[in-house]
What we know:
29% helix
Amino acid sequence: xxxxEVDRRFMALALALGARGQGxxxxxxxxxxxxxxxxxxxxxxWTRDGGRPHAEVVALAEAGDAARGATAYVxxxxxxxxxxTPPCAGALAAAGVARVxxxxxxxxxxxxxxxxxxxxxxxxEVETGVMAAEAARAHRGFVLRVTAGRPLVTLKLAxxxxxRIATATxxxxxxxxxxxxxxxxGLRARHDAVMVGGGTARADDPMLTVRGLGIVRQPVRVILSxxxxxxxxxxxxxxxxxxxxxxxxxPDATAEAREAWVARGARLVDxxxxxxxxxxxxxxxxxxxxxxxxxxxxxxxxALAASLLAAGLVDDLTVFxxxxxxxxxxxxxxxxxxxxxxxxxxxxxxxxVEPVGADVMQEWTRRD
Length: 368
């Protein structure tokens, strides 16, 4: 194998390791690291829950003395600043690593090339841009939070063949099958937060937790409710002290409602309102980004989905389609968006299609 082929092989492993931290390390990036000496893997690591220790530190600890003279493969530029932990670039240099292969630069102003410079100043050979496109996708949420001030948004839809999420009477359990529902739990686990609108919370009182996967660290549950007019005797309220519950509200939420939800253990997130007095989706995401969230999994309802799509704030779209037809009287998956011409409609590029049980799962990415 050529050096380039070897580098890609080990970087692919580092990316796979880093993915294990998705949904568990915010506000930090989910980084993976592999250390190789004389063709043998001597250390591997990924950023641990809560963002510490970093992937490089974990891999160096496993490698021990074998890190001296080795090559380290890192999916994101090693940090160069003193935060809650010392800089990883310094740790790699102190361990005697001879070469570092970096997939993607870190746009954080505290790093942004300084990590690579620190390594080179220590006499370490540095190769950058190996599997950069794959790393850019893996770290999109972190990069968006740093550069745009908001998290990545994945919108999930589970619909009939004709795009309905419920019958005219509101019956919706279950349009898709158990295999699709299990896949949704896996998707929730890979995001920092699960988000729904107030209408969905009032109608379904969903738990929005990851179940059946042995997950201990649950995603934050985010509910958009302008007036905080949510049931205070339901499952969300009862579990707020045990599982993070963030309520995004507007300025017209009453003091009584705010105090009641804080007393139940919820965290209030004050957001701006936009057209029609509804919560402005850009403000909501900016507030979530300022709180450190990097990846948000939105599960509706239709009004929230429409507002995010209309504002150009949906990055990925995951659609589960069931082999049933409900008809025009059913409830649509996406609310009114005011699209008058096809050129105004948000566009997405198909990434994958696969059968999941009796249903079909499609993954789309926004066209840039």
